[in-house]
Design a protein that fits this description.
The chain is mainly alpha-helical. The chain has one domain. It has five helices and no strands. The longest helix has 29 residues.
Length: 135
C-alpha cells in the first residue's frame, strides 16, 4: 500500500510543479510580469520544500516511480490550445487538482504536511485570480 501511495504522491508532486512552471513561463514571457513570475516560482519551490517532509524523503518517492508501467500514460489529451491563455487555464487547473490530491494523500502520513499543501492550494487560487486579471 505504501508503494501505491508514494506513486500517487510522486505523480502529483511532478504534475503540480510542472503546471506551475508553465504558468510561470506565461507570466514571465507573455505577460512580462516580474511579480507574478516570482509568485509562481515561490509556489513551485514551496511544493519542492515539502518533499523533504515525506517519510524517506524524495528518494523513497523515486524508488516507487514506475513511469513505463503507468496505465494513465496511454491516455492522451484530445484538447488543443488556441493560445497562451488556454495553456494557462489548463495548467493552473492541473496545479490546483494535483495540490488537492497531495493534500488528501499526505494526510495519511503527516497532518501538518497536508495543511501545508492546502495552504499552497489556496495561494494558487489567489495567484490564478491575479493572473487572469492580466490575461
Amino acid at each position: 500500500m505504501k508503494k501505491d501511495l508514494f506513486r500517487i504522491i510522486d505523480a502529483n508532486l511532478n504534475r503540480s510543479r510542472e503546471g506551475l512552471r508553465v504558468c510561470e513561463e506565461i507570466a514571465r514571457f507573455a505577460l512580462e510580469d516580474e511579480r507574478l513570475t516570482g509568485e509562481f516560482k515561490d509556489l513551485r519551490h514551496g511544493i519542492s520544500r515539502n518533499i523533504k517532509k515525506f517519510p524517506g524523503k524524495s528518494s523513497a518517492l523515486l524508488e516507487c516511480r514506475e513511469s513505463r508501467a503507468d496505465v494513465g500514460r496511454k491516455i492522451l489529451s484530445k484538447s488543443s490550445r488556441k493560445d497562451y491563455k488556454d495553456v494557462f487555464f489548463a495548467n493552473i487547473q492541473r496545479a490546483k487538482e494535483s495540490l488537492r490530491v497531495l493534500e488528501e494523500f499526505s494526510s495519511i502520513f503527516n497532518r501538518s504536511l497536508s495543511n501545508a499543501f492546502a495552504g499552497l492550494r489556496f495561494k494558487v487560487y489567489e495567484l490564478e485570480k491575479k493572473t487572469i486579471a492580466r490575461l
